[in-house]
Design goal:
heterodimer; A: 306 residues; MetI-like fold; 2 domains; two-stranded antiparallel ribbon; flat; B: 278 residues; mainly alpha; two-stranded antiparallel sheet; 2% strand
Chain lengths: 306, 278
């Protein structure tokens, strides 16, 4: 198992390295990255000075090595717009995004997993069809549209919930539902397939033959085995939730890194945008790695091999 | 998901046909010029009639443009972005997948590693960063969505090609002297097309959502040209007084994506061999 995990860690390191390289070249797609960092209306002289100060006049390979060295030391650079270290700008916003992602995950898991189990157990019934409709709706709903509709209904018309900003738990409800809907659909689909796969196994038939009710068989035997693929989805969905926050945070004026990304683009603060992309990708890679490790620990076929 | 929730595939195809029809014919069927502003008729509700300008069936927006015409024109933007970006990523992703699956070895290792790398940057963020660097424009939107989504097709094409390439009829074709390009195009591609079409369909729905999302953020279709996303973004400022600006484009977007997803699911049941046992 250790060899298996070490292999995954190695892959994750290579992938991280690849992401850093890809972002480095993306930032240079427009030709001169200096132009992304200066305020509009800067003179050619000012741009030339800045280009030299930031080292963008050096050969590309030198810039690349310097970029990697800086990031490996955990230094995300200094924002030229806010004149602050990018890490501290990011750090002040991350807790809000984590709060939102956690809220959305509660919505997604809390509805998605029970819905998926119900769809598998009552296969072919009215229950499955109505839950399938819910899943399709969640999957097809644009987050900004459901967000605005909820603001209209619960914020403006009924006045039950705050329409934007951060004001305790009530302000977290609508953004969490808007962001969690898509993940809810993924959890429901994955859970349904995993439970159906397990229900067709012989051990379930054996358990039923011993007189166990379907509910008891699911609770005692199926749930454990079906949990394995669902854990993998959870890891992927956390990355998706962080990325989806870009739109939802803009709709609800939620001060997390998603809103920060859009504000930073408007303010031409590209080091901040770059840092957010790197941060979210890194979380995504780590989550995937964790899922693989958990998978290896839970699944005896991998745990006991070698 | 099995095909248990299919309220008539005919109805889904019919709705999608209407969407394509409206989008293609948009310039000829809009009741008003979607860009023309009538400042005296700002934020009028649906079913407004003006003796000088005629009917505004879905009302007007914040600068007095006909909402129905803008929604119809927005369908055009979403269809063009969806179709073009899916074509770009389907074509490039399939070529990489076929090559990796056929030649295997280091080519497969390199291609699949790049696939992992691109897929580990969440697509919406990759799109936001790239559009922000290149500047928002229609061509850049297609480029960005095409560049960020090809790995989805490569994964499927690769896995399928690996399977198909071991079948006896491929060996037979090789022994008959067929060259690699001919085998890939004539013998392998037709056999992996089904699963690729399933991916392309769900990706099409996703690309429509991405276009609307990026336009909502101001990074997609640029004003004054309408996109469902940008109409809703303008409408959000008037959500309390002019609900129609967000509700109508939203219904269209949700409806089209829902139909596309239902179609994708229906196709998966029929074309994807792995799903048939479920």
């Amino acid at each position: 198992m250790l060899r298996h995990i070490a292999g995954r860690v190695g892959q994750a390191v290579v992938t991280t390295f690849g992401v850093l390289t890809l972002v480095f070249f993306l930032m240079r797609l427009s030709g001169d990255p200096t132009l992304l960092l200066v305020p509009q209306g800067a003179s050619a002289h000012q741009i030339a000075i800045l280009r030299h100060q930031l080292g963008f006049d050096r050969p590309l390979i030198v810039q690349y090595v310097a970029y990697l060295r800086q990031l490996l030391q955990g230094n995300l650079g200094t924002s030229l717009v806010q004149r602050m270290p990018v890490a501290s700008i990011l750090g002040s916003r991350i807790p809000y995004t984590i709060e939102l992602a956690a809220g959305s995950l509660v919505v997604a898991v809390g509805i998605g997993i029970p819905a998926g189990v119900a769809m598998a157990v009552w296969r072919g019934s009215l229950v499955e069809r109505s839950l399938a409709a819910l899943v399709f709706a969640g999957q097809s709903m644009p987050t900004f549209w459901s967000g605005i509709l909820m603001i209209l209904l619960f914020g403006v018309v009924l006045g039950w919930l705050p329409t934007s900003g951060v004001a305790g738990l009530p302000s977290l409800i609508m953004p969490s539902i808007a962001l969690g809907a898509l993940s809810m659909a993924s959890f429901a689909r994955m859970t349904r397939i995993a439970v159906l796969d397990e229900l067709s196994r012989d051990y379930v038939a054996a358990a039923r033959a011993r007189g166990l009710s379907l509910g008891a068989a699911v609770a005692r035997h199926v749930a454990r085995n079906a949990a394995i693929p669902v854990v993998t989805v959870a890891a992927l969905e956390i990355g998706n939730l962080l990325a989806g926050a870009v739109i939802v945070e803009t709709v609800f004026a939620w001060p997390g890194i998603g809103q920060l990304a859009i504000q930073a683009i408007a303010a031409r603060d590209f080091l901040v945008v770059q840092a957010i992309v790197l941060f979210v990708s890194f979380v995504f890679i780590v989550m995937n790695l964790l899922a693989d490790v958990v998978y290896a620990v839970i699944d005896p076929r991998i745990r006991l091999s070698s | 998901m099995t095909g248990r929730f299919t309220p008539g595939i005919a109805a889904i195809l019919g709705l999608l046909a209407i969407y394509v029809f409206v989008a293609v014919l948009a310039p000829w069927i809009v009741p008003h010029n979607p860009l023309r502003q009538i400042l005296l008729l700002r934020l009028r509700p649906p079913l407004t009639y003006s003796p000088s300008a005629g009917w505004f069936l879905l009302g007007t927006d914040d600068v007095g443009r006909d909402l129905l015409s803008r929604v119809v024109d927005g369908a055009r933007a979403s269809l063009m972005v969806g179709a073009l970006s899916v074509s770009v990523s389907l074509l490039s992703g399939t070529v990489f997948g076929l090559l990796a699956g056929w030649f295997r070895g280091w080519i497969a290792i390199v291609v699949m590693r790049i696939v992992d790398i691109v897929l580990s940057i969440p697509a919406i963020l990759l799109a936001v960063l790239t559009v922000a660097v290149l500047g928002p424009s229609f061509a850049n939107l297609i480029l960005v969505l095409g560049l960020t989504r090809w790995p989805r097709y490569t994964r499927v094409a690769y896995a399928q090609t690996l399977q198909v390439a071991t079948l006896p009829y491929i060996r037979a074709a090789e022994m008959a002297g067929a060259h690699a390009p001919r085998i890939l195009l004539r013998h392998i591609l037709p056999n992996i097309a089904g699963p690729l079409m399933v991916v392309a369909t769900t990706e099409f729905g996703l690309m429509i959502l991405f276009e609307a999302g990026l336009s909502f953020l101001g990074l997609g279709i640029q004003p004054p040209y309408p996109s469902w996303g940008s109409i809703m973004s303008e409408g959000q400022n008037y959500v309390a007084s002019a609900w129609w600006m967000t509700v109508f484009p939203g219904i269209c977007l949700f409806g089209v994506v829902l139909c596309v997803n239902l179609l994708g699911d229906w196709l998966r049941d029929r074309l994807d061999p792995r799903a048939q046992s479920r």
